[in-house]
Specification:
This protein is of the alpha+beta class. It has a single domain, classed as Histidine kinase-like ATPase, C-terminal domain (Heat Shock Protein 90, 2-Layer Sandwich), CATH 3.30.565.10. Helices cover 34% and strands 26% of the residues. Strand 5 and strand 6 form a beta hairpin. Helix 4 runs antiparallel to helix 5. The longest helix has 18 residues. Bound molecules: adenosine-5'-triphosphate and magnesium ion (MG). The site of adenosine-5'-triphosphate (ATP) has 22 residues, from helix 1 and helix 3. The site of adenosine-5'-triphosphate has 22 residues, from helix 1 and helix 3.
Length: 176
Amino acid sequence: MMEDLSLHILDIVENAVAAGATRVSIAVDENSARDLLALRVTDNGRGMTREERRRAFDPFFTTGRKRTGLGLPLLAQTAAQSGGRIRLESAPGRGARITARFRLSHVDRPPLTRIAETLLALAFGHPGVDLRYRHARNGVVFGWTRKGGRTGAVSPAEVAALRRRIEAGLGRIGAG
Ligand SMILES: Nc1ncnc2c1ncn2[C@@H]1O[C@H](COP(=O)(O)OP(=O)(O)OP(=O)(O)O)[C@@H](O)[C@H]1O
Ligand SMILES: [Mg+2]
């Protein structure tokens, strides 16, 4: 089990980028009334065959050469342990969409405390990818999008500015 849900977000988005995605959208929905935390990541990568979909949750199944194949099995385990479940929708050429649900109040639900770090790592690690983040907390929404395609080095000042912006937005909705 990973100690923070943002690490799962990192893994799912890395999967998407590895599958050639140029557009990745991350949606988090926290709803106290329904006692639900839903996480959805949608990408426009190459997608998965039926066989890949079938095996995606098998530990050590991977199509990457330097990967271990534990990302999705760990996410499924985390969801199961916190009263939730995971769903994978994908077809070849049609991208992929992963939805994980957790019981918000479950004692074994990992926290979601490192979103800013995760988004910074993704934004600067994959400058070519369009990123979209949407976080709703009991109906109040923080959204952030970053158009990909830029080249050249990123300055520490830019990193700091983006961190401030994301932390302020998350603070506004009482998340992070
Ligand atoms: N968004 C996606 N698009 C296409 N294929 C995917 C996607 N996500 C996962 N897969 C397929 O499922 C496999 C398993 O993913 P998983 O995250 O469990 O392991 P991994 O990324 O290969 O290794 P690790 O996460 O341990 O570094 C991937 O190797 C890939 O073949
Ligand atoms: Mg992975």
